[in-house]
Task: inverse folding
């Protein structure tokens, strides 16, 4: 695996480390040298054994398989919580894909996706939210629609309720 | 085949929809369009959903209607208490279950959750929902009108909104079976001071009930309906 990576990216001089998500402060230090097994262009993987407590900022896509507690901010990028990932944090990202466990509020400028087996306890704010069958969710969903004007009620086909003192149920003809 | 099966339609051709459903029975709903009409008169309404999370429903209420949707699956609480043999603690638990501010909810979707509760738990939940609803807020609930079949496996029902007038019923395993059906009068008393504004008796042995929180909870605006 090492040889293959070197063959693909030959470098006569020591390679400049690819940008790594800014992590501050952390309880478990990340490897000093970037691990080619865990890094591809534009994507960082936080492995199963990694525990991060604090604030995590970045400018590239990130996959979390470990444990993160605090705050994650990837404003223009995709955050993926892998099946082994556990997050106890406020999350701000462009898109968030959850296959693991999240305890905290999530704000996404594009989309939040909770896939089968994923679990979220917290509030979601995103224009698009997809929750798969078999996912767990407890909290609120606020889908701020770009086209909608605040304070403008929706048009609906049914007429508003007029209170009645109805005693007997109406038999629905279906 | 149950009699109610005769009155169901089948949903076709949407196996890849958000709900992942296909060829599952769908049923007309009379109360849902009224519920939607009522909550939609508010800007950015807040809807509390007591059923299990359904992606399609989140999209329907959140994206199409612009609601903020709060999902609090009460069936999980019922099952947990039933499994632990602590059903007597359920009313007290439900009394503390909703930390939301009083009068902060525009609509509550109870679905059929009350069918799985005894009177004490149902009363506790109903009083919490009455507290959460804003004035003129609406609550929609479904009640079975027939006794549960003896020997049948207990199930809850996922109610999936197909459109404003159609629901898909999808049963899934429950720990606690349905309880005795509530008569009309007990439903009205259960939710006081909310008032029943619409009831629809469906041929599927379900009663759809829509209740509203009156401006004057004491009922001075008019006598409550009686069965």
Result:
């Amino acid at each position: 695996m090492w040889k293959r990576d070197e063959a693909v990216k030959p470098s006569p001089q020591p390679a400049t480390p690819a940008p790594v998500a800014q992590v501050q402060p952390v309880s478990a230090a990340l490897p000093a040298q970037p691990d080619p097994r865990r890094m591809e262009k534009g994507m960082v993987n936080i492995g199963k054994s990694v525990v991060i407590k604090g604030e995590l900022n970045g400018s590239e896509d990130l996959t979390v398989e470990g444990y993160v507690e605090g705050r994650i901010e990837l404003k223009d990028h995709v955050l993926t919580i892998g099946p082994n990932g556990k997050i106890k944090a406020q999350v701000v990202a462009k898109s968030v894909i959850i296959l693991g466990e999240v305890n905290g509020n999530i704000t996404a400028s594009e989309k939040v996706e909770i896939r089968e087996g994923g679990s979220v306890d917290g509030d979601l704010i995103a224009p698009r939210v997809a929750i798969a069958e078999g996912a767990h969710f407890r909290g609120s969903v606020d889908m701020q629609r770009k086209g909608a004007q605040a304070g403008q009620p929706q048009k609906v086909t049914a007429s508003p309720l007029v209170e009645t003192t109805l005693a007997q149920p109406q038999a629905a003809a279906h | 085949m149950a009699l109610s099966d005769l009155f169901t339609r089948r949903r076709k051709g949407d196996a890849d929809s958000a709900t992942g459903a296909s060829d599952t029975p769908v049923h007309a709903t009379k109360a849902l369009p009224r519920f939607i009409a009522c909550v939609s008169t508010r800007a950015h309404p807040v809807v509390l959903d007591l059923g299990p999370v359904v992606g399609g429903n989140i999209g329907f209420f959140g994206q199409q209607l612009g609601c903020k949707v709060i999902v609090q699956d009460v069936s999980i609480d019922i099952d947990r208490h039933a499994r632990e043999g602590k059903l007597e603690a359920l009313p007290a638990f439900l009394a503390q279950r909703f930390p939301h501010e009083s009068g902060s909810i525009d609509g509550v979707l109870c679905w059929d959750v009350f069918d799985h509760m005894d009177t004490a738990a149902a009363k506790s939940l109903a009083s919490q929902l009455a507290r959460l609803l804003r004035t003129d807020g609406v609550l929609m609930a479904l009640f079975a009108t027939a006794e549960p079949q003896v020997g049948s496996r207990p199930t809850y029902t996922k109610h999936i909104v197909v459109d404003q007038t159609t629901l898909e019923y999808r049963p899934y395993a429950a720990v606690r079976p349905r309880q005795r059906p509530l008569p009309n009068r007990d439903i009205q008393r259960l939710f006081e001071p909310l008032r029943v504004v619409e009831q629809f008796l469906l041929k599927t042995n379900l009663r759809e009930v829509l209740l509203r929180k009156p401006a004057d909870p004491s009922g001075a605006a008019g006598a409550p309906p009686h069965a």
Remarks:
- The longest strand of chain A covers residues 67-81.
- The longest helix of chain A spans residues 2-8.
- Chain A has one helix and 14 strands.
